[in-house]
Amino acid sequence: MNKISLWAILLMLFPNMARGESNSEELLFIANSVPQQTMSLQSAKDFFLGKRTLWPNGNAVKIVIPGRKYPFAEVVARSIYNTSPNGMKKFWLSLVFQGRVKPPILLKSAKAIIEFVAEHEGAIGVVPANSENIPSELILRIQKK
């Protein structure tokens, strides 16, 4: 897929990106070898909130998010967890301590997140929508309401 087509798709999926608005539409959800490549925004967020730990085929979900020192962590924390990066860390510590989930993989860059998701079946991650070199087969399609 050429870059122009990919940008056209991204702009259709994330129209506020062109206007520079800051909200959850700055996020791009990516996943590898999962049974459903299209889902609602809430369904995608449910994975990151620990509400869903298995894919519909029974495989475990591997959550990949930016570490709290990565600048994009602020957008992820605010958009998915309605908190700060420190609040996001506390959220995950609580879930892991309760034994409800495995800890997420914390990485330092969008490139690292993309590479991890590409290499690990069942992984789901979130990166800035303007990230480069995202294989189209990794992009989760988020259904409009």
Strand percentage? 15-25%
Structurally, how many domains make up the residues?
1
* Major sheet strand order: 1-5-3-4
Q: What number is the mean pLDDT?
A: 84
Strand elements, count: 6
User: Which quaternary structure do these chains form?
Assistant: single chain
Residue share in helix: 25-40%
Structural category: alpha/beta
Tell me what the CATH architecture is.
Answer: 3-Layer(aba) Sandwich
CATH T-level fold name: D-Maltodextrin-Binding Protein, domain 2
* Low-confidence runs: 1-11, 14-25
Q: Write out the CATH superfamily name.
A: Periplasmic binding protein-like II
Question: Can you put this structure into words, describing what you see?
Answer:
The two termini are 27 Å apart. This protein has one domain (3-143): D-Maltodextrin-Binding Protein, domain 2 (3-Layer(aba) Sandwich), CATH 3.40.190.10. The longest helix is centred in the middle third of the chain and has 13 residues, at 85-97. The protein is built from 6 helices and 6 strands. The strands form 2 sheets. A 4-stranded mixed β-sheet has the order 1-5-3-4, with helices on both faces. The protein has a two-stranded parallel ribbon with strand order 2-6. The chain has 145 residues and is an alpha/beta fold. The chain has helices at 3-13, 16-19, 41-48, 73-81, 85-97, 110-119, and strands spanning 27-31, 38-40, 62-66, 105-107, 123-128, 141-143.
